[in-house]
């Protein structure tokens, strides 16, 4: 194992691994937050409401 670390710089490889993890986690956060479940929570991609408050909800049969 020590021969591998003599060829590969551990600081550079750990830094690139950290950047990769941060990039993947950021991408996953963007995908989840732009899903319909969480989109209206933040309001940055919300569509206008199709109902008015207090209006009775139809029952599905």
Q: What does this protein look like?
A:
It is a single chain. The protein is mainly alpha-helical. It contains three helices and no strands. The longest helix is centred in the middle third of the chain and has 24 residues, at 10-33. The N and C termini lie far apart (65 Å).
List the helices and strands and how they pair.
Elements: H1 2-7, H2 10-33, H3 36-42
The radius of gyration over CA amounts to: 23 Å
**Element-level helix/strand string:** HHH
Count every beta strand, where a strand is a DSSP E run of 2 or more residues: 0
How many helices in DSSP terms?
3
Q: Average pLDDT across residues?
A: 78
β-strand amount: under 5%
Main sheet specs: none
How many angstroms does the end-to-end distance come to?
Answer: 65 Å
Organism: Falsiroseomonas tokyonensis
Transmembrane segments: 12-32
Domain Antenna complex alpha/beta subunit: 1-35
Protein name: Light-harvesting antenna LH1, alpha subunit
Name its key features:
single chain; mainly alpha; 61 residues
Concise structural overview:
This protein has three helices and no strands.
């Amino acid at each position: 194992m020590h021969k591998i670390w003599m060829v590969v710089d551990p600081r550079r490889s750990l830094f690139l691994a950290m950047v990769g993890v941060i990039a993947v986690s950021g991408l996953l956060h963007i995908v989840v937050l732009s899903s319909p479940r969480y989109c209206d929570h933040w309001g940055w991609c919300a569509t206008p409401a199709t109902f008015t408050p207090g209006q009775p909800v139809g029952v599905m049969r």
